[in-house]
């Protein structure tokens, strides 16, 4: 049997009974020093996981008891997963402690049932950055090269209004520190190795609302492909909901993604992607259009970064490569815009066009960039009332929707 004990973040050292009779005790150096490992038991200081698991297996094969000491709740982004995968859950006796995330929110007296928790430990930092851009309450589990300074540097460019709470040495009365800083202030510090967790908060929305489900909303409560009336727009210059529905299906926006809406117009696509959990940048060439995008984002309670500029040149100022791009309009510059977007997109580019003449050039730009390209002509007719309590079909203007998907073998090493 493997007894997994959560310690740290204010938890007392494990009781002697849990350690008594253990042939092997595995844990971080500070956990082992605090626990009082019994004489005669072998100690393994956790470093690379595979060699430690090999030692654990040897003791289990001998029928001897193993104790694993871990930080906080070992089932929450912790060692329980690796142990269960290797030895099976039935061989584990888990005694959880308080996770660093729960402890950090407790220090702020904030509920966290509506928080998004993302791990940057041994993973790409960009996912954590995109989650922090899109959601008002995020806990980031940090790691080497993905700590408060790196997170702050990324957010200082995109979301300078966020507040970072850096919690270090949680549970250590002499060393614990919980500091509120701006992203720029976080970027300018050397935080050392004692950081437990970083919270990223929108100060205006940090308390949150009463929830039924924990974590981010799995999908907008009112659905997607909203009616045009849900957005402020000029002279019906808005991507119609039928087109938006298929565009969203092909873009596949989700939590952790970054999406560009190029030629945003009203920002309907940008807002819908944000409602589905993605971080979004909307590029719009007109000042009044950029204002409408901001107003629509505010009306729907989502974060959208609005760039007032003309594509493709405005795209050069966007430092972070998107997962998916929606291109609406574009005029004569459309091939150059699609080419610029395809060069940067990690997964998908979707292009909507009303003009037949633009289709070959847009398709050529996608295929020339190595994308697998497909598309449809969308023709819809909506029910419209007539006098006498009868109904006719009112045809909407046809729209071409093309999409290019980067082949899986080329998802890494995208040209910068």
From TrEMBL:
The keyword Nucleotide-binding does not apply. Pathway: Cofactor biosynthesis; adenosylcobalamin biosynthesis. One of its GO terms (molecular function) is protein methyltransferase activity. Gene3D superfamilies: Cobalt-precorrin-4 Transmethylase, Domain 1, Methyltransferase, Cobalt-precorrin-4 Transmethylase, Domain 2, Vaccinia Virus protein VP39. Keywords: Cobalamin biosynthesis, Methyltransferase, S-adenosyl-L-methionine, Transferase. It holds the Pfam family TP_methylase. Residues 1-186 form the Tetrapyrrole methylase domain. GO terms for biological process: cobalamin biosynthetic process; methylation. InterPro entries: 4pyrrol_Mease, 4pyrrol_Methylase_sf, 4pyrrole_Mease_sub1, 4pyrrole_Mease_sub2, CbiE, Cbl_synth_CobL, Cbl_synth_MTase_CbiT, Cobalamin_biosynth_MTase. It comes from the Bacteria. This is Precorrin-6y C5,15-methyltransferase subunit CbiE. It comes from Streptomyces naganishii JCM 4654.
